[in-house]
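User: I'll paste a sequence; please echo it back and then give the predicted structure.

Assistant: Echoing your sequence first, then the prediction.
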Amino acid sequence: MYYAKQLNEARAKKLFYATTREYYYRVLNDLNTEGYSDVDDTAHYEPQDIIDVIKFIEDELIPALNAEPTNLLAKYGGMENFVKLYEAEENFLDALGLNDNEYYVDEPEQVAYALEVFKNEFLQKSLDSGIPMESILEH
């Protein structure tokens, strides 16, 4: 998500929200939460944003990852430095709460593959069916 934000912050934000529970989307954006619960796993669903996220993944994110000459943690100066860079930026990614004790997939090809699967198996299926997916982002 951090890498995506470096490429295109507005589109990365839409990607982030597409993985976020509707309740948390509303909390993060100071919207009315009446009728929504923090235990409901239904993801935020905005069809036009999902279309934009799919295009972002296809047109920007995967090509950029495939062109990366090194793994992503090395790009950011190692795990500890990556966490520092991440924490230095106050933005929508704060909800992820990363730390240096976590495991990170840092090979660009693996991240690109995971994004391709996510795009096809979650975003596109959700869009085609008109049904929000269950959120994959825990808060």
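The longest helix spans residues 108-129. Residues 2 and 107 are 14 Å apart (CA to CA).
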